[in-house]
Amino acid sequence: MSNGKTISDACRAWLKRCELDELECATLRSYRNHVDHHIEPAIGELCLASLSRSDVRDFIDDMLDKNSRAMTDKVLRSLRSALNEALDREWVDNNVALSVKLRRSSRNAPDRVIPTKEEIKTMLRAAPTKHRPLIVTAIYTGMRMSELRGLRWVDVDFTRSIIQVRQRADRFNEIGKPKFSFHALRHAAASLFIEQGWPAKKVQTILGHASITMTFDVYGHLFDNAEDDVNLFAKLEADLEAA
């Protein structure tokens, strides 16, 4: 497949999709930083049709020489998402970045805190009455902190037991410093969803991830056979979006 499209074209199309999906401002800034300061300067002019796993591997190795593993991991996720966008637009036949892994030793593993079920129970028992509704909602929905801050009574349908996320609030007042951050409660919700056997696509939709790849990147270790399934889910996502 040769259409003259470049990695830069894929990145810009992906960023536009993220804007249309109304992702949080902080998330968009982060994605733009990945594209503007890392992906485009290094490989932006490469043609999508000729991009190989070796090209991606070389790019990631070069990133590791100049940046932290955490930043390299984030940029790799963004590149995968951009190539998924290209796949969705039929600019490429497959996403060559999916099979490129950033292997970590336990020493370099990210500090992603996921409370255990017992710790969640303890938090619920000890939650102050004033903050309990917020904590319970965070645990059972996986909503982002900005989404919780923007939640209004009109967004809650008690009859159907449905919460609709219609707005976000970027700023909030401090309510203390618990052992776990509210983002850890989002991780806790995801782990509970997966423990219940929910399909990865459903988890992606509920958490509002831009792609199934992101869901596997963050929570893949909690799924059975995640390594085997990621390519199948990426293809499924592309097929569903094209339908």
TrEMBL record:
<feature type="domain" description="Core-binding (CB)">
    <location>
        <begin position="5"/>
        <end position="87"/>
    </location>
</feature>
<dbReference type="InterPro" id="IPR013762">
    <property type="entry name" value="Integrase-like_cat_sf"/>
</dbReference>
<dbReference type="InterPro" id="IPR002104">
    <property type="entry name" value="Integrase_catalytic"/>
</dbReference>
<dbReference type="InterPro" id="IPR010998">
    <property type="entry name" value="Integrase_recombinase_N"/>
</dbReference>
<dbReference type="GO" id="GO:0003677">
    <property type="term" value="F:DNA binding"/>
</dbReference>
<feature type="domain" description="Tyr recombinase">
    <location>
        <begin position="46"/>
        <end position="234"/>
    </location>
</feature>
<dbReference type="InterPro" id="IPR050090">
    <property type="entry name" value="Tyrosine_recombinase_XerCD"/>
</dbReference>
<keyword id="KW-0238">DNA-binding</keyword>
<dbReference type="GO" id="GO:0006310">
    <property type="term" value="P:DNA recombination"/>
</dbReference>
<comment type="similarity">
    <text>Belongs to the 'phage' integrase family.</text>
</comment>
<dbReference type="GO" id="GO:0015074">
    <property type="term" value="P:DNA integration"/>
</dbReference>
<keyword id="KW-0233">DNA recombination</keyword>
<dbReference type="InterPro" id="IPR044068">
    <property type="entry name" value="CB"/>
</dbReference>
<protein>
    <submittedName>
        <fullName>Site-specific integrase</fullName>
    </submittedName>
</protein>
<dbReference type="Pfam" id="PF00589">
    <property type="entry name" value="Phage_integrase"/>
</dbReference>
<keyword id="KW-0229">DNA integration</keyword>
<dbReference type="InterPro" id="IPR011010">
    <property type="entry name" value="DNA_brk_join_enz"/>
</dbReference>
